[in-house]
């Protein structure tokens, strides 16, 4: 099976790229996704060793901060069953879980964050889902060409 490429979004006040770097083993579970299309990506398509761009959303600096990778494929998101958790879903059934998460691990931080404005200005990225009108998914696929271009941009000074 060929490697796939992804972008995940997080508000830095909730969980930042630096938080991932500081996590035990620089690894964390990617929980709290509550959109069915994003859930389907986590459940059906994200696999171990897939490469992931980490994007800071809803912040002063809207930018891709670096790269992480999937280290554990999709499995039930335990937060859906915890009434004390912000991501609790009272309709979730432990016998048939609704929500899925994956584990991701820090790979490296970019020398230069790749801003949303820079992405919009790059003609090679004109079809990227991140900048598509109305796309608000927190998990989305990117092409290898898009991934490579973002990586090149992030490594420039």
Topology:
Layout: E1 5-10, H1 17-22, E2 27-30, H2 36-45, E3 51-56, E4 63-76, E5 100-115, H3 116-121, E6 139-142, H4 144-155
Parallel strand pairs: 1-3
Antiparallel strand pairs: 1-6, 2-5, 3-4, 4-5
Q: Your description of this structure?
A:
Helix content is 22%, strand content 32%. 31% of the residues are buried. The longest helix has 12 residues, at 144-155. It is built from four helices and six strands, in the order βαβαβββαβα. The protein has a six-stranded mixed sheet. By secondary structure, it is of the alpha+beta class. The protein is globular, with a radius of gyration of 15 Å. The chain has helices at 17-22, 36-45, 116-121, 144-155, and strands spanning 5-10, 27-30, 51-56, 63-76, 100-115, 139-142. The N and C termini lie far apart (35 Å). The protein has a single domain (5-155), classed as ph1033 like fold, CATH 3.10.590.10.
Shape: globular
* Head-to-tail CA distance between termini: 35 Å
CATH architecture: Roll
Overall pLDDT: 96
Give the CATH H-level superfamily: ph1033 like domains
Percent range for β-strand residues: 25-35%
Which series of helices and strands comes N to C?
Answer: EHEHEEEHEH
The third-level CATH topology is ph1033 like fold
Question: Mind describing the biggest β-sheet?
Answer: 6 strands, mixed
Stretches where pLDDT is under 50 for at least 5 consecutive residues are none
| Total DSSP E strands | 6
The number of helical elements comes to 4
Q: Strand order, main sheet: write it out.
A: 2-5-4-3-1-6
Radius of gyration using CA atoms only: 15 Å
Assigned CATH class: Alpha Beta
Query: What share of the residues lie within helices?
Result: 10-25%
Total domains, how many?
1
